């Protein structure tokens, strides 16, 4: 399985992409494979301040319910409203239309603390071993 090189990853299987000073956040294709079909996504309100590595929402799938964890501290500037109508976008395009939130990071340099795609692929290999 390949993971995009233009995003950074967390050990909780979220991804983060820095664009124009904002960070777009979603869950990885590995996470969607583990969850199964996503049927509901609970996201925070715009303006909410998030703490790094703390839960910011919930994703509910046929198999299970799982917390979503903020990869960085920051303020939510947008949520993907399309997921309310079509939560399956998370499965169909986890790195595209299935994004979850955008946030203005407190410290953009914190992106460097997240894993690159090679490290994330290694983590997945270890979890599957």
Automatic annotation (TrEMBL):
Its cofactor is (R)-lipoate. The modification N6-lipoyllysine is found at residue 63. This is Glycine cleavage system H protein. The glycine cleavage system is composed of four proteins: P, T, L and H. One of its GO terms (biological process) is protein lipoylation. Pfam families: GCV_H (PF01597). One of its GO terms (cellular component) is glycine cleavage complex. Binds 1 lipoyl cofactor covalently. It comes from Eiseniibacteriota bacterium. InterPro entries: 2-oxoA_DH_lipoyl-BS (IPR003016), Biotin_lipoyl (IPR000089), GCV_H (IPR002930), GCV_H/Fam206 (IPR033753), GCV_H_sub (IPR017453), Single_hybrid_motif (IPR011053). Belongs to the GcvH family. The glycine cleavage system catalyzes the degradation of glycine. The H protein shuttles the methylamine group of glycine from the P protein to the T protein. Keywords: Lipoyl. NCBIfam families: gcvH, PRK01202.1. Residues 22-104 form the Lipoyl-binding domain. SUPFAM superfamilies: Single hybrid motif.
């Amino acid at each position: 399985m390949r993971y995009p090189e233009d995003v950074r990853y967390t050990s909780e299987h979220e991804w983060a992409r820095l664009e124009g000073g904002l960070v777009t956040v979603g869950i990885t294709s590995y996470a969607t494979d583990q969850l199964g079909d996503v049927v509901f996504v609970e996201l925070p309100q715009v303006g909410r301040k998030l703490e790094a590595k703390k839960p910011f929402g919930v994703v509910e799938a046929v198999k299970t319910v799982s917390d979503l964890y903020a990869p960085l501290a920051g303020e939510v500037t947008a949520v993907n409203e399309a997921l309310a109508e079509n939560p399956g976008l998370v499965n169909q395009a986890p790195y595209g239309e299935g994004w979850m939130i955008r946030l203005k990071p407190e410290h953009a340099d914190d992106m460097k603390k997240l894993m690159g795609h090679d490290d994330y692929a290694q983590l997945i290999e270890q979890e599957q071993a």
